[in-house]
Amino acid sequence: MKIKKFIKKNSMTLLLGFLIFSFVLTLAVSICIDTDFFWHIKAGEYMSKHGVLTKDVFSWYMYGKSWMSHEWLFEIIIYNLNKLLGNSFYFIFPFVCISILELIFFNYNKSKYLKNVPFTLIWIVFSLIFVFFIQIRPHLVSYIFLALTIWFLYDLYKNEEDKKIYFLPLISIIWANVHGGSSNLGYIFCFIFLITGLFSFNFSKIEAKRINKKQIVKYLVAMILSMGAVCINVHGFKMFLYPYQNMGDTLMLSNIMEWFPTVLSDASHYPYFILVVFILFVFIFSKRKIQFIDFVLFGISLFLGLKSIRFWPFTYIIMNFVVFDYVGKRKIDKNTGLGILLLACSLVLFCINNFPKLSLSADLLDDKVITILKDVKSKRLYNMYDYGGILIYNDIKVFVDGRADLYSKYNYKDYLDMTALKGDYPKLIDKYDFDYLLVSNKQQINTYLKYSDKHELIYENKDKGFTLYRTIEK
User: Of 122, 113, 118, 139, nearest to 23 (Cα)?
Assistant: First the structure.
């Protein structure tokens, strides 16, 4: 009887929880294995056996040069989990990460979800923007850290006695070792809450409320401790500087797809613009005044998203702690519960049907070309950037791979020029004295090699679109 009463009393909350679960399942099933996954796994294997890497061991050209392994702990963890769980790990990892993220949202907003169920349903649907980012990479863990950070900062903003903010330095330590490239976000958002909290004004629809001394001290202490905590890692103070050096690398940012800016000319970017317009509508048509901190956070997340498509999940994560405060109450329609149940069941059935069809291969190279490269024992291989991770995974030394931050100060520009046949590319090819060249058939360098009297075709796979050439000895 108690169970029945509980279900009846909390039926809508339980239905929304089931719907969120179905979306988490849908996102997890959409996992794609990108090529970076392979070098992450290989790095994890190496470090599990030999200790944390501070110098490169995977590139014949960069061998022995300094490498900021800012994701070292993540790599060790996924290598050992993959070893323990096998192929099921590829599904379990994103499912667990997104589940934790949604649990944080649910815990923070559970009472607000029922205030306006139609709005809640639309907002849950927007979680599908994560579908473009479901990969076995450390940014999924960073999403969790960001959500916890914003949650703790907001709780102090609303309650001066709240003490969760003192967990931020601990989060920063873990963050710096799992995904150091974004570990600065903890203390940066502390700073944002601190500065915006110093203002007190009313301007049109925007309102700023000054925080008290107790809150100021807590934000300041958490910020300073978090800044120090970032330095507690195998690379020390270098990790504190790394995110800023990385974001200042214009060569990398302008050539790596995930760092590209958001543009209206690309239809795949439309969901992000729709999300922005939706949030703006919520702010504009709300009867409440917009809190200055909410406005600032929206502006920052919008700026980051426009700067690079990889930051749009940040917008959704941050706005989860904001938008529900601006939604008016609405009575639940009669058949809303049935609609939610049908939608959730449909998604679960879709996932069950598609789970066996999951492709867990990057599908860029075949086994034959790997065997050839191992047999010939290539010493100075030219390879397409996207092939690097797979080659590393198969113990083949590369020219470049997904670690663009490692190569950008050395050979990355030359790689780009050779690939696109820019500048004096024949001299560059001679300079590096490649013995074998593994290229995509879509690359311009392939056309040059095809008609070059210095190179001969060894193997081609037209279905996968790559060709292996050998340099003819003089």
Answer: 122
Which residue is associated with the tokens 């020029």? 417
Closest by CA position to 461, among listed 446, 445, 448? 446
d(CA 127, CA 131): 8
Phi first, then psi: what are they for 353, rounded to 5°?
-70, -35
Query: Strands, E, within 220-310: which ranges?
Result: 290-291
- Provide the 3-class DSSP secondary structure of residue 360: coil
Residue keyed to tokens 């069809």: 357
Specify the pTM.
Answer: 0.94
Residues 352-378: tens digit of each pLDDT: 887 755 555 667 899 999 999 999 999
What would the two tokens of residue 316 be?
A: 């959704």
What DSSP letter does each residue of 291-317 carry, written as one string? EHHHHHHHHHHHHHHHH-GGGHHHHHH
For 400-448, what is each residue's pLDDT tens digit? 999 999 999 999 999 999 999 999 999 999 999 999 999 999 999 999 9
From CA 257, how far away is CA 135, in angstroms rounded? 15
Letter for the amino acid at 130? F
